[in-house]
From TrEMBL:
Keywords on record: Signal
Signal peptide: 1-19
The keyword Signal appears for this protein: yes
Matches recorded under Pfam families: Esterase
Name listed for the protein in its UniProt record: Esterase
Gene3D superfamilies listed in its UniProt record: alpha/beta hydrolase, Tetratricopeptide repeat domain
InterPro entries on file: AB_hydrolase_fold, Esterase-like, TPR-like_helical_dom_sf
Length: 394
């Protein structure tokens, strides 16, 4: 019975997923042909909104598009990556010609060069004009096209910010110069590559050699990940590799979790409001999108401040939360806690009372606030003499 229910739910999910996939066509002067595109927009996509989304270009869109979309749906559900626009390039019988490269250099030539220019000069500008795309762009390719996407690394201004090379069929001198090329980037670049112990022998050997080079690169702007899967073939490694690549590429985007709290937030030198501001500024700078700090994340950082006995951070987190959302009681509540902890009971009581006039948050119980007000009311008023009635916004 449970198995039947799971199958029904899975089928319902897949039906919904594929119903949301649309098809488009783009006429290319570079290719002298019309190319079909598969497009999956975010569930919350609104063409009239100011919200923008990273763009993921899937080469081999004939068979690779759906696995990418499925993984995206899964990871965005848990807020592990931003909602993104996925575009699959349908290549079909043109695949060999699209990925045609010089045997010596490994770089596109003839039909491959025309396809390279089509993507850079026609496809990306078209998508940027038609959809709400951010500056962050990801290329995903397998086998022949896993090698092809490396050609964009060798442009003066690389077309993509992240490269997902799934068992790439590295050819020519590209495989010998990948590490050297990645050494010189001065802007953030992500590079992911995967093989497996049951991969095609020639492909596996070249990938292992390339990994040896790239692993030696010392470049603060390069984020490199490599997976060598066990018991997967050239084809079955694809789904695991897509999941791993997205998990790594969008690691910064994920909500604050225990590992980061323990390893980075707890020992942070400075007030914790600055950690939050810097973290989310980095997300905006990197992915070109604005991600709000959630109530849960504020709460987690406040708990770290308490663990550090860091009252200055508690006050500054309160001010930050109030600045970002003045209608929420969150910031005022933290400021009330700060005032209470430093002995300013009159001010704490006023702030708790003020919090009750503001919008609720999920993890703060209003009954608890009422109890704090009652508790502070019975405190001997002599304890409050001389308190500074400074504005909590200062």
């Amino acid at each position: 019975m449970k198995k039947t229910i799971l199958i029904v739910l899975l089928n319902a999910f897949l039906c919904q997923l594929f119903a949301q996939i649309t098809y488009d066509e783009i006429a290319s002067s570079k290719l002298n042909a019309v190319r079909q595109l598969k497009i999956k927009l975010p569930n919350d996509y609104n063409p009239d909104s100011e919200i923008i989304h990273p763009l993921i270009i899937v080469f081999d869109g004939d068979y690779l598009f759906e696995p990418v979309v499925g993984q995206l749906q899964f990871q965005t559900y848990f807020d592990d990556m931003p909602s993104s626009i996925v575009v699959g390039v349908v290549q079909a019988n043109e695949r060999f010609y699209d990925g045609y490269c010089d045997e010596v250099t490994g770089l596109p030539k003839e039909s491959g060069l025309r396809f390279h220019e089509f993507v850079a000069d026609e496809l990306i500008p078209y998508l940027d004009s038609e959809y709400k795309t951010s500056k962050f762009k990801v290329a995903v390719g397998h086998d022949l096209m896993g090698n092809f996407i490396n050609s964009y690394l060798f442009k003066e201004d690389p077309l993509f910010d992240a490269y997902v090379c799934l068992s790439p069929d590295l050819s020519g001198t590209v495989k010998d110069y990948l590490g050297e090329r990645l050494e010189f980037f001065k802007d953030d670049i992500f590079y992911y590559m995967a093989t497996s112990d049951k991969d095609l022998p020639g492909i596996r050997d070249a990938v292992i050699d390339a990994d040896g080079q790239i692993s030696q690169v010392n470049n603060q702007y390069l984020t490199y990940y490599f997976d060598d899967f066990k018991n997967d073939t050239h084809y079955t490694l694809v789904t695991s590799a897509i999941a791993r690549s997205f998990d790594k590429i969008f690691e910064l985007y994920k909500p604050l979790r225990e590992k980061e709290l323990e390893e980075k937030v707890l020992p942070y030198e400075g007030t914790l409001d600055k950690y939050l501001v810097d973290r989310y500024k980095r997300i905006e700078d990197l992915f070109g999108i604005k991600k709000p700090i959630t109530e849960e994340e504020f709460d987690k950082v406040v708990k770290i401040a308490e663990q550090r006995e860091d009252l200055e951070s508690l006050e500054k987190i309160g001010k930050l939360a109030k600045k970002l959302d003045p209608e929420s009681l969150l910031g005022t509540y933290y400021l009330a806690q700060y005032a209470e902890k430093v002995g300013k009971t009159k001010k704490a009581k006023k702030l708790y009372e003020s919090a009750l006039t503001l919008e609720d948050v999920s993890h703060i119980n209003r009954e608890f606030i009422f109890s704090k007000i009652d508790e502070l009311t019975v405190v001997d008023t002599d304890n409050d003499e001389g308190e500074e009635e400074d504005d909590e916004d200062n």
